[in-house]
């Protein structure tokens, strides 16, 4: 476990990376004064509403862990945050989770209406792939960039996040088998977190062994992140989370604590994060920030 000093270091590193990611997002989103104004303002409203920027961090740290540069991973980092934001905008719609608050602000459809929120999500997803396809944005070889596109598309689509969201909606009010819940979590939340690490590794030129380390870390961190999210929905404050808490129970959602119990949820999150730290130990010094990031996920309150 890193000491208080290395935790402070991680906070500083994350703040610095966050500023770079936000500047890159700003540069890759159409300006707010570009017609049609409403769609571009809605896209920016949701992207810049806050958020931890966890997926960009994973891509940047994954790339640096295998010897790549921040510039190598920045297109993937930007694309991943655009896709993640689109998923939140659509998830909050009345047809899905019907939430009024996200990232501490009224949700996109509350401000811009449902039609524009749907279109803002669509446009963020599309722009993500525009960023990945931009040849001038990076020195990463074209073959690697194609692998990154495939990696992220697979994770975001019906075999990954969209598939997990479909399972989630269909499971409302149902009692899920433990194995089905694990599949749902792996797809809905885990797939994009895993892809963030792998996209970073691909951008950084990782060999097979290093990719295996990042993949093992990403899979464990992804499930632990979702378990902690489920626990925070029970125990967290809505002020810290920036959205309503207690909504899983209200909506009879299949969650990890509901299926396995709260104590098992806490224990399993801790075990998975310990395994995640172990998975990147072979990367040596390169993996130190990823080890600290696992602590961040364990301690997070939002
Ligand atoms: C609508 C296609 C589609 C997918 C939605 C990710 C998702 C699928 C829904 C979000 C619902 C949810 C609360 C999932 C739990 C885990 C999760 C993804 C939390 C939000 O991610 P954070 O905590 O958010 O990284 P910030 O705001 O910090 O970026």
Q: Number of helical runs?
A: 15
CATH architecture: Orthogonal Bundle
Q: Rounded to an integer, what's the Rg over CA atoms?
A: 18 Å
Quaternary organisation: single chain
- The CATH class is identified as Mainly Alpha
H/E element sequence: HHHHEEHHHHHHHHHHH
Entry summary:
The chain is mostly helical and 302 residues long. 72% of the residues lie in helices and 1% in strands. The protein has helices spanning 4-28, 37-47, 54-65, 70-91, 108-112, 114-133, 142-156, 161-171, 178-203, 208-235, 238-241, 247-250, 256-260, 262-279, 288-299, and strands at residues 101-102, 105-106.
What does this structure look like?
The protein has helices at 4-28, 37-47, 54-65, 70-91, 108-112, 114-133, 142-156, 161-171, 178-203, 208-235, 238-241, 247-250, 256-260, 262-279, 288-299; strands at 101-102, 105-106. It is mostly helical and 302 residues long. It has a single domain, classed as Farnesyl Diphosphate Synthase (Orthogonal Bundle). It has a two-stranded antiparallel sheet. The chain is globular and about 50 Å long. The model is unreliable at 1-5 (pLDDT under 50).
Keywords:
1% strand, Farnesyl Diphosphate Synthase, binds geranylgeranyl diphosphate, mainly alpha, two-stranded antiparallel sheet, 302 residues
Write the layout of secondary structure elements.
Blueprint: H1 4-28, H2 37-47, H3 54-65, H4 70-91, E1 101-102, E2 105-106, H5 108-112, H6 114-133, H7 142-156, H8 161-171, H9 178-203, H10 208-235, H11 238-241, H12 247-250, H13 256-260, H14 262-279, H15 288-299
Antiparallel strand pairs: 1-2
Geranylgeranyl diphosphate is lined by residues 51-52, 54, 84, 87-88, 90-91, 96, 103, 161-162, 165, 188-189, 226, 229.
